[in-house]
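Message: Study each token:
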Amino acid sequence: MAASGGGGEEALREALLLAPPAGDGNGNGKVEKQVEDLEEIRSVRAFLRHAAEENRRLWSLAGPAIFTSIAQYSMGAITLVFAGHLSTLELDAISTENNVIAGLALGLTMGMGSALETLCGQAYGAKQLHMLGVYLQRSWIILNALAVLMLPLYLFAAPVLRFFHQDAEIAALASRFALYMIPQLFAYACNFPIQKYLQAQGKVMAMAVVSAVALVFHVALSWLLVGPMGMGVVGLAVALNASWWFVVLGQLAYILMGYCPGAWNGFDWLAFSDLYGFARLSVGSAVMTCLEFWFYMFLIVIVGNLENAQVAVAAVSICTNLFGWQIMVFFGFNAAISVRVSNELGAGRPRAAKFAILVVLMSSVAIGLAFFAAILALRDVYGAPFTESPEVVRAVARLGVVFAFSLLLNSVQPVLSGVAVGAGWQWLVAYVNLGCYYLIGIPVGYLIAFPLRGGVTGMWGGMLSGVGLQTLILVAITMRTNWDREASEAHSRIQKWGGSAAVKALGE
């Protein structure tokens, strides 16, 4: 199409940009009428009716997403259980590789894959189903390029680990295990885009089923390779790689078998267009996610410099282990609200997006209060199953209050991060995280822990100031947001990274 066309040509261009593709996305050959926005709620009864319906939608997304997160988190945990039956050295080395090398790769690939939560969710809400497959392929290109750039981290893991003052023997074995785990790196790069693509369409049950089968497969294969076949560390690496690729191929088979009608039309050269803008949003997602992940890694590193560091690190490790399981629950809420907000904004329903945020916050705060009360009630005993040291149990008990507040704040924070992803605010939240966590939280915690001699409780409590401030800022941003404008920007985003490429391709 020529850029100088007249009014008829401009109308045709606008129609191509604004309308969904021919058909309703399910092959029915018709265009669905846009669903009306949520009606104004004028009574308590109406509020409760709409809240019940919204809760049903949220839990239909959050429930399978929570199970998927726990199942995939458990594959690494089960590998560590088998490693612990080999020797302490194998356990330490595999744990180090899993937390440092693979942990960095996980954070980056999961973060960059989160861009699809914004784009696929908004395109799905706008009935631009044909663009979901294109976005998926663009993300594969970007994340696999990132995986190639991260290869030196795996190839030269030993000097990296020694730089962080790891034991030489542990670093050597962890480095060898990292070489075996390179296939997992590329599985991450393929898996997270597929998950966001399926989440945007509400295909979360398929993800849960594949993850459940993969978890059973992983347990059986790990036992076979480590037990009867006696393959040791190599067997654990083969089992973990195979299990992650089982997840990828199982989900991909679901897509290729036609269970995502209209959203997958085969490989498309449009995947190579508009990569810069797509990559920028992906990097923003990665920065936002990694700044959150690394915040609690800094807690353990700094606590290691306190007096009686072994007890302090053990106590914090127990709490962060429990924190990891809790956060899997709220990852489900994160995914659910991201899908709901992006779908509603893409469909031009800003009032429904706001209502979804209110309902999910009510649910997550209720669960957070339950965790908060449970930790305070069990503060003297919840550390006992993890250690036989009375000193460590007492140290864990002293952390009970700050740990309980951490769980409460982190019942809200992942939800607000999910709202940010659904609305496309990744870079804004990345700046908020940088300021609150690293310019306020860590310095305040360090000040209380060392000059004021507040110890590990002071360190964690001070860092909570950053989490609390971040939560307040995200609440304020969410409350002050003009959601009508966000719906308009979602529409523009679909034009920029979807429709514009389609118009250009048709013009050629």
About this structure: The radius of gyration is 24 Å. DSSP finds 19 helices and no strands in the chain.
